[in-house]
Design goal:
The chain has helices at about 5-40, 45, 50-55, and strands spanning about 65, 75. The chain has about 90 residues and is mostly helical. It has two domains: about 1-60, no CATH class; about 60-94, no CATH class.
């Protein structure tokens, strides 16, 4: 029968083997990726599509509601301003 300390020693050995395998495979993967990047002359934009960044640049949203007395507007996003808070919003729709 295998003792508890023997099992712990085996686990330590396996943990070390796992770490070594991860490190080796990661290095191989990086080398392969670099080779592909160089072969096809890829750039960051080719690898990582930055659609969300371009969306942030045009981040303005048209207002949906207007306060008739002051002319203040609100897009309907985020916390409601005091002038519309708790009221029926249909009368403020633009």
């Amino acid at each position: 029968m295998v003792s508890y300390t023997d099992l712990l020693a085996q686990r330590d050995q396996l943990d070390q083997q796992i770490k070594d395998a991860i490190q080796r495979e990661k290095a191989e993967g990086i080398a392969q990726a670099k080779a592909i990047i160089e072969r096809y002359k890829l750039e960051v934009g080719d690898l990582f599509n930055r659609k969300s960044a371009s969306r942030g640049a045009s981040g303005k949203v048209a207002p949906k509601y207007r306060n008739p007395s002051t002319g203040d507007t609100w897009t309907g996003r985020g916390k409601a301003p005091k002038w519309i808070e708790g009221r029926d919003r249909t009368s403020f729709t633009i």
